Structure prediction request, 256 residues.
Amino acid sequence: MGKKAESNLLQDYHLLSYDVLDSTNDEARRLASGGGSHGAVIWAKRQTAGRGRMGREWVSAEGNLFVSVLLAPSKTLEECAQLSFVAALAVAETLEGIIGEHEIRCKWPNDVLCNGRKIGGILLESFIVPDEFGNERQWVVVGAGINVDSYPEHVMYPATCLREAGVEIISAKIVLSRFIYNFIHQYDLWMQKGFVPIHKDWMARAHRLGQNVEVIIGEQKHEGVFDGIDPAGRFLLKSPNGALTGIIAGDVFYKE
Prediction:
């Protein structure tokens, strides 16, 4: 990509920085409702009501990265669900550029792992807001969190942070700049070529592909082998009899 084209991509985005927010995703929603524009990047040094998937609390200690990108892509709602994989790749590439000697993997549906422990996560939310002419406009917020200085303990899935991985001199601001750079390029690739290259790159980083897993959906537990993700981004669970099931949402645990 030439310098001129790259410059044009960067011009579509603008940073809004806050010391404290309840949630960067909530601020993005407020911006959209108040006439905000595509490409707003909302960064908070601390969140008081951060959340993850399924409304779970996201511990938001200062020193870590909390950012949301407000987008209005000309894609269907079903296609926009693919943005969680776009963002996960951007997080993975960011971490690979900082701690390339460690194993960085993507864990379905929205986590990024360092040496098997969670270091980043994605929260994708979509909603519709009427524009100034009364027409409905679809928005998507891509929220990302990366553990830079610290990580929560006593959580569902073991976590880590950049500092524990041996990165002593780095700040959330530096990680932010690298993430946004990678996200812009992954997003442009998705807009131009669809999910195929995203699917390929995510699968190349898929955590424990082909290994035994347990998927919890509500009160039910399902066991089988992780067989990848399908073109719609669904988790493919291969049962002992070889049947494949596409799972839209659930919690995945890997068995030894």
